[in-house]
């Protein structure tokens, strides 16, 4: 059962009306107005969504700025701590250098004492050597010039 050409033309002509009738019984003009109103509402909602997204992005920017400011402050605090540690290190270094200077002075004093002691010992040694040499010389002279026990 094939449709006649007239039947096909009739269906094409009335198909739009039948579809409009099926959509809640509204005529095509009312249906078109309703579609336009829906489109306007969708566009308004999209505009509202864009505004919400912009606000969200602005809030994110504010958060990033606040986070960066907080991080900058923390880095400044860390820098201050390092500066304090460096100052303490320098103070300890100066203190240690002062103590080493004191130890050097003490060693110099000990060296001077040893030098003085060595000089005294050298002087004593020379005196003793002189006494010994004089004594030996006197003994030799005495043996030569003094008459010995008779034969």
Question: How is this structure best described in words?
Answer:
By secondary structure, this protein is mainly alpha-helical. It has one domain. Helices cover 90% and strands 0% of the residues. The protein is built from 2 helices and no strands. The chain is rod-shaped and about 185 Å long. The mean pLDDT is 88.
Properties at a glance:
mainly alpha, 90% helix, single chain, rod-shaped, 2 helices, 151 residues
Walk me through the topology.
Layout: H1 5-22, H2 28-145
Task: State the gist of this model.
The protein is mostly helical and 151 residues long.
Tell how many strands the DSSP assignment holds. 0
Mean model confidence by pLDDT? 88
Element-by-element helix/strand order: HH
Give the class from helix and strand content and strand pairing. Answer: mainly alpha
* Biggest pleated-sheet summary: none
Count structural domains.
1
Ranges where pLDDT stays below 50 over 5 or more residues in a row are none
**Proportion of residues in β-strands:** under 5%
Radius of gyration: 60 Å
Helix residue percentage: over 70%
């Amino acid at each position: 059962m094939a449709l006649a050409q007239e039947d096909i033309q009739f269906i094409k002509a009335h198909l739009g009306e039948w579809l409009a009738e099926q959509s809640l019984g509204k005529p095509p003009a009312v249906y078109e107005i309703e579609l336009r109103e829906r489109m306007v509402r969708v566009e308004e909602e999209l505009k509202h969504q864009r505004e919400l997204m912009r606000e969200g992005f602005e809030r994110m920017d504010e958060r990033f700025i606040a986070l960066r400011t907080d991080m900058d402050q923390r880095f400044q605090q860390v820098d201050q701590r390092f500066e304090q540690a460096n100052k303490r290190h320098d103070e300890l270094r100066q203190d240690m250098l002062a103590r080493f200077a004191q130890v050097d002075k003490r060693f110099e004093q000990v060296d001077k004492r040893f030098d003085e002691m060595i000089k005294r010992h050298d002087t004593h040694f020379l005196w003793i050597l002189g006494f010994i040499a004089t004594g030996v010389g006197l003994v030799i002279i005495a043996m030569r010039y003094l008459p010995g026990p008779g034969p």
